[in-house]
Design goal:
This protein is α+β, with helices and mostly antiparallel strands and 276 residues long. The protein is 25% helix and 28% strand. The protein has seven helices and 14 strands. Strands 1, 2, 3, 5, 6, 7, 8, 11 and 12 form a nine-stranded mixed β-sheet that branches. Strands 4-14-13-9-10 form a five-stranded mixed β-sheet. The protein starts with a helix and ends with a strand.
Amino acid sequence: MLMSTQASRYAHQLLDARALAQMIPPLSANGPLSIADSYDVARCIADIRIAQGETMVGRKIGFTNRKIWSKYGVAEPIRNPIWTPVFDDTVRYTEDNRGLQCLKGAMQPRIGPELVFKLGCTPAPDASIEQLAECIEWMAHAFEIVTCPYPDWKFEMADSIAAFGLHGSLIVGEPKMLSAASRRSLGEVLAHASLSLSCGDELRSAGFGHDVLGSPLHALWHLHQLLKEQAQFQPLQAGEIITTGTWTDVCPIKPGETWTSAFSGVSLPGLTISFV
């Protein structure tokens, strides 16, 4: 277990690395780092950012796509989802599902197409997955730009949690308000939907909603359950946005590229984002 002073040192080290766009060795290279330790670092980071005037607006769930677990983790593959707080300074909304994003300062950036939920009310602690769906106000497609301060994207699961969950920024498309009927079938509809991801005219990746823990709704359910075990963090609250994990592998990006996405099986518009 980390001493609070060590967790604070790690938090400042990661915040400095992000601010200066400087790579650092994985924290686990300094000695054992447990999952519980990494969430203590994440808590320290959240406290520092809030004290500096930032506002927490939601959560990012990561590593929900089972198909990519084996590609990450040095000592052993990552086999469980993670989460991290998301703050207002890394979230932006598009106009007409098109946007321009600067990559300056983004370390080893990659893109992941995701589904975002906005909670309209606070879920009860013992809410069923159906009751959790009733708490969702809207959903939207989003691109998450993930970044990594560790050389060559080599890290352990705990390292990724501490490093902002590898979250860089979130670009959110047009929200789709949910009706009572659409909430009842939401998990199944999203499980059977598919998405394609292209750079220019070239298809780069594709995936299905069921790759995301069976459905993005199940990813939200997983986070709701996990937070019951983490007393240092507040449970899910009304007004939060929750990004539920990439439908494809995350692809490297660079300035000058334009990326587009398209859905099949769910009535959500794709996104077009150009990077500079």
